[in-house]
Amino acid sequence: MPHSAGTSEPGWFKQLFESSPDPSWIIEGSRYIECNDAAVGTLGYTSRKDLLGAHPSKLSPPRQPDGEDSFAKAERMMAIAKKKGFHRFEWIHTKADGSNFIAEVTLWPIALGDRQVIYCIWRDIAERKQSEQALLKSKQLYDDLVSKIPFGIYILHSTPEGAFALDYVSPRSAEMFGASVDSLLANFDIVPQTIHPDDRDAFIQLNLDGINHLRPFDWSGRIQIGETIRWLHIASSPDPQENGNVLWIGIVEDITERKQMEDQIRQLAFHDTLTALPNRRLLNDRLRQAMAASKRSACYGALFFLDLDNFKLLNDTRGHEVGDLLLIEAAGRLKGCVREMDTVARFGGDEFVVMVAELSVDKAESAAQADIVAKKISAELAKPYVFHVRHEGAAGTTIEHCCTASIGVVLFGKDDASQDDILKWADAAMYQAKESGSGLIRYYDPRA
To answer: Phi-psi category of 119—alpha, beta or left, where left has phi over 0 and alpha has psi -120 to 50?
Structure first.
């Protein structure tokens, strides 16, 4: 870094800063006072002088996607980083040619000499996996810096004979593996021992492939320490040395929150928010798989389309809160009527779909099996419901309710019917049951 920036960084920090493949910045007083070549290149400028002294909002559109003014939001993000000691968020930046791109921005306050600054890194989200490479090129790393970085760092070397040993591991890395720095340096086997049994083989094989073939190592998986399970991402790249050894400089990142967020997003995308049952999207996918499996195995499957009788009346007289309690209870009862391998889905409103696969290869026997399931479902849903409803500022109320279901049943398997046909036929049979009364079961008749 130019001496004119006024920073009194040690040599190892300069090497770390300059060699980082990610755009890196030093912020002081809400202004960029230093950046590396990656930052200049990413933004498409020719000189650092074009960037230094600028407020982060000057390299951004006037407003961020959420509508907040870029200047005000940048100030708020830096304030959060100073308060929490670390902050990560998404940000839209503008290149020299006027085009925008989205980056994951990481801020953490550090001390350079007697000055308090913010160390800032951008990471292109679209190329996250490709951009995770060795962040450090030096064996001389100091815990007072890496302890402020929200991921762990390690350095190991491998020999031409295939042996390898840790040369350095940061306290943050050791913490993630539930061990001390000294114990990890003395015994690298602690690391694979903490890997979850289901992920251990892949971890070991990737390690061996990387060492034997000088391939970058990139692994995401679970570790288990006692009863605690967390997700880690570990990445490193080979750096051949003149003595024949290979230096591996890598990072260890706790991605548990990211995985939990991905699971939540997946849950919202494929499951009903009220009952937690699969929604139409997931039902269609499972029905497609079940129909394909039936054609391969020649075993029939059955689809049950259910509608709760007089549900609207309960909603109108007792309110949506009680109606929701009924739907939740009905969902639980339906799941108890079928095997774990079968599917219970909420189709919408008070309509449910149950899919039972792998019945008999004989159609008559499969129909008899489906009839048993349908009658079991009908009897279970017809049992009385008891709800305890609490109202703010008032005594709780106990509500008893009796409810039946109209059920339509259709078999699927050897014919060339589509998913839409199967659902349409089951729906039609259900409406026949509903028109004939309540609590009835009807079967789709292709001749009708």
So the answer is: beta
CATH of the domain at 167: 3.30.450.20
Residue 83 lies in domain: 3-127
Torsion of CA 106, 108, 114, 115, to 10 degrees: 50
Phi-psi map region of 248: left, alpha, beta (phi>0 left; psi -120 to 50 alpha)? beta
CA distance 167 to 208: 18
Is the domain of 155 the same as that of 108?
A: no
Same domain, yes or no: 429 and 287: yes
Which pLDDT band holds residue 72 (cuts at 50, 70, 90)?
A: very high
- Is the entire prediction scored with pTM above 0.85? no
Residue 304 CB neighbours (<10 A): 28
**CA quadruple 369, 371, 374, 379: dihedral sign:** negative
Whichever domain contains 432, its CATH number is 3.30.70.270
Q: Is residue 66 part of a domain?
A: yes
Compute the distance between CA of residue 225 and CA of residue 179 in angstroms, rounded to an integer. 10
Segment 320-363, tens digit of pLDDT: 888 899 999 999 999 999 999 999 999 988 999 999 999 999 99
Pair 216, 315 in one domain: no
